[in-house]
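Subject: design request, 149 residues
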């Protein structure tokens, strides 16, 4: 301990308890609904993952797929540029994906269906520019950070 008055110690998130309170409230809510929210999360996630894979298969994009657990998937593309082009087209249609996709209890089947329509349109665009995805990117392709190739 410091015994002097002129010493101040601080940390970036030292007194932040809002996140912990939110996590505890979420855990309590999940425990109190007999698993309905968790079941919905898994169902919606499976619907997104399977729907993405069906779109890629239908469009004969064999190197593109969704993998992972239903509530936390990632999309696999042959190159970072192909993935960037897909993300770009989804963003234009108001859907933001990241490296990992997390489904929550707020994502109902109708919302997932709407997203899958955007996924299909965006994958069609990727297919149109499959040979040269950089030519269709608006700006530079993103680079991977903190991930081993």
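Subject: RE: design request

Done. Sequence follows.
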């Amino acid at each position: 301990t410091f015994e002097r008055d002129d010493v101040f110690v601080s940390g970036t998130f030292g007194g932040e308890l809002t996140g912990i309170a939110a996590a505890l409230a979420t855990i309590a809510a999940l425990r109190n609904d007999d698993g309905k929210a968790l079941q919905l999360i898994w169902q919606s996630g499976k619907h997104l993952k399977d729907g993405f894979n069906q779109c890629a298969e239908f469009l004969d994009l064999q190197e593109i797929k969704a993998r992972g657990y239903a509530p936390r998937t990632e999309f696999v593309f042959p190159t970072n540029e192909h993935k960037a082009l897909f993300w770009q087209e989804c963003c234009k249609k108001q859907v933001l994906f990241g490296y990992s996709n997390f489904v929550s209890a707020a994502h109902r089947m109708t919302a997932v269906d709407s997203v899958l329509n955007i996924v299909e349109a965006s994958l069609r665009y990727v297919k149109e520019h499959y040979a040269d995805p950089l030519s269709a990117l608006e700006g530079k392709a993103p680079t991977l950070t903190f991930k081993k190739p």
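Residues 45 and 69 are 8 Å apart (CA to CA).
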